[in-house]
């Protein structure tokens, strides 16, 4: 007997639901696992069927690995609560939970996880890919805050992987690229967060070639309490968007400054002012909402889409651009929804004690471009890649790679070889081989 449902059934459709609508979802069978026992049943059934087993929860990056054709798909949505321990500042997060689910439980205690810019992203997949947060220049990659993973291995065993139990597996899971098993829960460290200074400043697109180099100069010596994102936006004329964003091409600067205690808030306000004052002196923004706020505001400020969309993207870790580079990039990709440069440095660049396969990013900037799937987006992504080519480091951030044919080099060859050894030990018969894509230099 198999738990997997056949194509066309309601259960199959529900298990294959994904945020990335441009990726085909056509496994031979699909199953939503509501318990750890369900996951072990799925692993056993896949082994009996002799088919690869694929794993996804929210499906934001469903297209990152090989196509699902011929595989079996398990979607672990574990029916268990997020458990927060305010005393130890930790949370146990079952597979299937989003960051919005976690923040609902942690923020009443004055605590937060190192979540990304969207509350709809699944926690487990985000952690496995490193995790790049607007708190990251202060606290580092989110994967460094993982205390343990609960994993169903290819042989059906349920193991706890942490610094002392299955330490090599624990090391590889944090950024190693998948194919190790089904993670059904994670225990993570939380950080105190009293308030933030957050918001978005918006300029006309014509001001971008002047604003962007000045932002980059500021970013070199910015304090670690602040993490920002500079983006060219071309959003559709939706009635839910303010007039200065709807149907216009603009330059937007958003992010967050941390204030872990009430006493930190005045300093956080000064940090935001030190960022914005030189930029607003160069050109007056058409809107500026940066202000003190509750931490719950951070997953909303980036305006990530709240519902599934068909999209195509490109990304890379890049070195600093010169003025000619900024001019070229800011004028490329007019049809793209967003052309982003995320500020790194600070704790993002610091090696983590006991860190995993991916514990830091050496590059100063992360580049990410995204648009609705179609010919115009494909053309503009090629143009943006050509403009950014001289500045590419050859490395990528896993959570921003969303297509199997995109460059996916995360770490050096010696780390890759160690990851491969752990993967072969964890899955000698290649049950999860489809969840791993061989790295291609960026």
TrEMBL record:
Cofactor(s) required for function per UniProt: FAD
Pfam families: FAD_binding_4
Keywords associated with the record: FAD, Flavoprotein, Oxidoreductase
PROSITE patterns for the chain: FAD_PCMH
Sample GO molecular function, one term: oxidoreductase activity
InterPro entries: FAD-bd_PCMH (IPR016166), FAD-bd_PCMH-like_sf (IPR036318), FAD-bd_PCMH_sub1 (IPR016167), FAD-bd_PCMH_sub2 (IPR016169), FAD-linked_Oxidoreductase (IPR050416), Oxid_FAD_bind_N (IPR006094)
FAD-binding PCMH-type domain segment(s): 23-193
Presence of keyword Flavoprotein: yes
Sequence similarity: Belongs to the oxygen-dependent FAD-linked oxidoreductase family.
Annotated protein name in UniProt: FAD/FMN-containing dehydrogenase
